[in-house]
Amino acid sequence: MATTATTKTSSGGVRVKVQQFGRMLSGMVMPNIGAFIAWGLITALFIPTGWLPNKDLAMLVDPMIKFLLPLLIGYTGGQMVGGKRGGVIGAIATMGVIVGADIPMFLGAMIVGPLAGWVLRVFDRAVEGKIKAGFEMLVNNFSLGIIGGALTLGAYKGIGPLVQGLTNILSDGVEILVNHNLLPLVNIIIEPAKVLFLNNAINHGILSPIAAEESARIGKSILFMLESNPGPGLGILLAYWLVGKGSAKSSAPGAVIIHFLGGIHEIYFPYILMNPRLILAVIGGGVSGTFTFQFLGAGLTASPSPGSIFAYLAMTPKGGYGPMLAGVVVATVVSFVIAALLLKTSSKNNEEEADLEEASAKMRNLKAAGSAVNPAAANAAATANVITPNTAANVRNKADVHKIVFACDAGMGSSAMGASVLRKKLQNAGINITVVNSAVSEIPADADIVVTQKTLTERAIASNPEAEHISIDNFLKSPKYDELVERLK
Description:
By secondary structure, the protein is mainly alpha-helical. The protein has helices at about 1-30, 35-45, 60-100, 105-125, 135-180, 185-220, 230-245, 245-260, 270-275, 280-295, 310-315, 320-350, 355-370, 375-385, 390-395, 415-430, 455-465, 480-489, and strands at about 405-410, 435-440, 450-455, 470. The protein is globular, with a radius of gyration of 24 Å. The two termini are about 45 Å apart. Mean pLDDT is about 80; it is low at about 350-355 and about 360-395. Strand 3, helix 17 (about 455-465) and strand 4 (about 470) form a beta-alpha-beta unit.
């Protein structure tokens, strides 16, 4: 029994570490998605094969992808580690990898940006309290300039060529998969990883940098579509809508709108967690969708973020709507058929399908042992659905609650939706409490209550251990919202 608990704890720790690493990668890209979309739109409109070919305006395409976007990533990466000074030195060092390579240096920026911010932070801590009064600005500016210049030279001579070689290897690997019609098999890995909330890490941390380089060369890339295809998730939700039972069936129509039109894919993850066999459905949908994309030559000009059908339409190049829509439809149909068959099979075998919240509670209990060092304490916390280092001490009374933070991996998708739902419930109850959303790694220090999806709660506790932490599975419809409102009345 002890060995099993240790194994689960270890696996939970590995999952958290992977999520943290993925969050760091995607965290450098996601704040700059707007810039990627701007570049994608300009590319789709003004390149020679675009909707409105314009040789003059098309001159913006190359400088934006080679200079603007890597610099933004490098600045963001440095800022994540070393604040504003870290952001500045991250951008400085990124210029080294930009000039030291002939391809867009997204991967290079993701390496040197945080590295430069970390080096500067180490220096600042070493000299903290040792600078004579009146010399602070002089030391701060010259230290940033000298260290930044040295890192830029090192990036130019060393990291830039190294990353270019690595990028070429990755691109060659993708080309081999494409040429041998093996690219759809990647979805066998991607779809289960998405359900473990690694979707942002996969899409923005791994695929998008490689896809952007490919898009700069040929005007589009299928890699933008591997993780973001809304078809597999749509098939799952439609199956629950038509053949599901209980609250899962009644909540599915709203989830369809949020997922397919709003692009928040996290909405369908709990529906798979309540019936893990359905992972086969999204794998089937993902593989068939990617195969269709590849067979018909589909591709997008930039990352469709969020993964909404509207974003897909906006990022599709001229002449590419047929292949794009075909891949989405095929993925939806395949996922739906497999999911419906699995749901009906469960019914035929007289396996009672639990309501969504009941199934989510079971998943919390099963996985809680892997989310805490003390399995017994974790199970007790999971039953209460409140997980904190010291639950009794951290539960807040009405008078002590001034800010509630809903946190998700990136701080943009499910957290914004969850915060909106909770805010409306509090307003309807006449409760005037601030409700905001944030990334799980950037939870404000003044947060009194933090609400997160279960798989992110451990990271939320590490980010702000003093707050009360409430763990949920369905951010759109959770009984914990009503329980919290009743407590705060």
